[in-house]
Amino acid sequence: MALGGEITTRSGVWRLVIANVLLLLSATGMLAFALFDSFERAGNGAEMAAGGLAEGVAKDISCYFGKIDQHLMRIKLEAEPLINIRVPDSGQIETIIARELEIFPEIDAIRIADESGFIRYGSIRPIGDATNLSDRAYFSTLKEDPKAGLVIFGPTQSRIGRHWVLLFARRLDRPDGSFAGVVYARIRLESLDAILSLANARFHGSLSLRWANDWRLVVRNPQVLGGTNSREVSDAFQAAYMKNPDQGMYMATSKLDNDYRLFRYKAINSYNMVVIAGVNRDDYLSSWRRNRYFFVVMYLFFVFSQAFVINHLRTGGWFATADADRAKQRPDNDG
Fold first, then answer.
1. CA torsion 118→143→188→50, rounded to 10°?
2. Segment-wise mean pLDDT, segments of 10 residues, the chain, 335 residues
3. What is the pLDDT of residue 253?
């Protein structure tokens, strides 16, 4: 009977030890899974934020450009008949231009150039015929292609004022369809930066608007010295864009400020541009790190408590009690 009791007692204690070890391993696995899952959720939060930022700014830019084009179209429709008469009504043409500028003051200037490229009408006009646009790419494009539609040019430094600007131009036609000149609107890059800055205020990341054909930088927030017209983009962006030109995600170090970020991009196909939004993944991992420390402390407390229990069972606790019980059950051989 004593031998059977010894086996039963010791095997029961060992079962408890093994159960505690398995519980400890299970807790370790659960902690690892919880930390990994929360890490992935934090990363997904960063990706969703960057994606929402890129898509929102793409819509804002598209809407902004669309409004500018609406003003150009109104001027084109009203001014074309006036410039095609023998003696154009300069006062009426200037009134039309002034009206559109008043309606949409974000436009820095609106001007009309004749078929030779000389500016004839519009705000802040140069004295005489000193400024000629015939060597500008947008002027040549509109002159040679009657179906060119809206042409966007820039960023470039304006010849009048020397500001960094983006130009929106449309062709003017004579009744027979021949080239009569161009009407163009000029916006300063500061107006685009204001759109990016407002969107980026909550995220403190980076927002860029680039041409989709050659990666030239139009505007970026925050601004970097010498960034305008820069073609410097990461290999990761080029690889992602080649796979999906419409939208995508990549992680890379920006060549403009050397910060490592998670980026999402969204194409503005109607204007051949792309918006790139970058967020610092560490900003989204900060809460995960705080929770990680809490979980690790709780886990270590659990580990030490389990180690104490296991050690007590193995050395000074139930094993010792079991041995004492067995000693009492043995017959007294000295008698």
1. 180
2. 48 64 67 59 68 92 96 95 85 94 94 93 63 90 95 86 89 95 95 92 86 94 85 93 94 83 93 93 62 64 65 56 54 51
3. 87
Give domain 203-283's CATH number out of 3.30.450.30, 3.20.170.30, 3.30.450.20, 2.30.30.40.
3.30.450.20
Q: Report in angstroms the alpha-carbon separations of 287 from 9, 282, 283, 331.
A: 48, 9, 8, 66
Contact 231, 292 (CB under 8 A): no
Residue pLDDT, tens place only, 146-168:
999 999 998 998 766 678 999 99
- How would you list the strands of the sheet with 119-122, edge to edge? 119-122, 109-114, 179-188, 164-173, 151-157
Which tokens is 39 given?
């890490």
Q: Are 142 and 151 in contact (CB under 8 A)?
A: yes
pTM: 0.73
Cα gap 313→320, rounded to integer Å? 9
CA distance linking residue 165 with residue 152, whole number of Å: 11
CATH class of 63-190: alpha beta
263 token code pair: 């980026």
DSSP 298-323: HHHHHHHHHHHHHHIIIIISHHHHHH
Domain ranges of the chain: 2-41+284-329, 63-190, 203-283
Residue type, 212: A
